[in-house]
Amino acid sequence: LLAARLPNVTPVAIREVVARATEVLGRVELAVDIVAGLTLGGGILALAGGILAAGERQRYETVVLKVLGARRGVLMRAFLVEYLVIGVAVAVVGGALGSLAAGLVVIQVMGLPWSPAPLALAAVLGGALTAVLAIGAGSLWRLIGLPAAPVLRGT
Questions:
Q1: Whole-angstrom Cα distance, residue 5 to residue 73?
Q2: Could you tell me if 116 and 99 are in contact, meaning their C-beta atoms sit under 8 angstroms apart?
Q3: Are 128 and 87 in contact (CB under 8 A)?
Q4: How far apart are CA 99 and CA 104, in angstroms?
Q5: pTM beyond 0.85
Q6: Please, which residues have CB within 8 angstroms of residue 11's CB and are 6 or more apart in sequence?
Q7: pLDDT tens, 67-126?
């Protein structure tokens, strides 16, 4: 009826357009979530790799400190404080650079307003620090249990 009276007007089903837009935006959101997760996972793995690479130095330090009379708890606290300082430094720099990059992409590329999400950032950084400390504690527990003689002999 309406098409007969207005032949130059094309009717559009808004419900279908909204459904299609919602589907596309859902896929975009999923892609962004996957990329963010992979980036975060890669960062955590890189930091964990750095911690594990420092194992040889820590192995020797641990043995020397044990020979000098350091207790297991003192060694754990000392190395965990070291990991915490490194983790906080990396988290602050990474969070600042990540927030800056996100702001630039949203404002410059997408042309949208951007506002930081401090609670989400704090949650991600807290999770990363927890992971670093857990990985560090696991590697330290093994190091602290090593016998001193073979390490000092270099075997």
A1: 87
A2: yes
A3: yes
A4: 9
A5: no
A6: 2, 3
A7: 888 888 888 888 889 888 888 887 888 788 878 888 888 788 777 787 888 888 888 888
- Angle, helices 118-144/55-67, rounded to nearest 10 degrees: 50
Per-residue H/E/C for 69-118: CCCHHHHHHHHHHHHHHHHHHHHHHHHHHHHHHHHHHHHHHCCCCCCCCH
Residue with token string 């040889």 = 56
Report residue 141 as tokens: 């527990």
Residues constituting the chain = 155
> What's the pLDDT tens digit per position in 116-144?
888 888 888 888 888 878 877 887 887 78
Q: Is pLDDT above 80 for 47? A: no
Phi, psi (deg, nearest 5) at residue 69: 105, 10
Q: Which token pair is 82?
A: 């070291």
The reported pLDDT for the residue numbered 155 is 60
